[in-house]
Give the backbone structure.
Amino acid sequence: MSKLTTLMCELPPFIPAGAEVMTVTIELPPGDSGTPPHRHSGPVFGYMLEGEMVFELEGEPERVIRAGEAFWEPGGDVIHYQAANNLDDAWTRFVVVMLGVPGEPMLTIVDQDELEARRDRRAPRPAADPKA
């Protein structure tokens, strides 16, 4: 018999008109810092297949997402600071579904000048975090 389990139910702030949708798997080797600070043109929904990821969005404290957990980010103007492998001895793998503005990149790296200009929007960093 089939079984349906709801992992997450969110109302995104917006979905771009005529959105392009991309589904990808991301694999981070042990200790990998992931993609540098970036943003997406639309919302992103993800599911952690294995491992652990340090996840941090602008205005929110960083958190650890573990295998079997779902996550999302609104995209648009929100900076995604971290998506790092939290494990030094194992791979982290997750699936994401990205909804983007047609003709725009799904992911855009944020430059240092913008990070500095918006540093007041970042949640306080953990004092004992060596990656901070």
About this structure: Helices lie at 112-117.
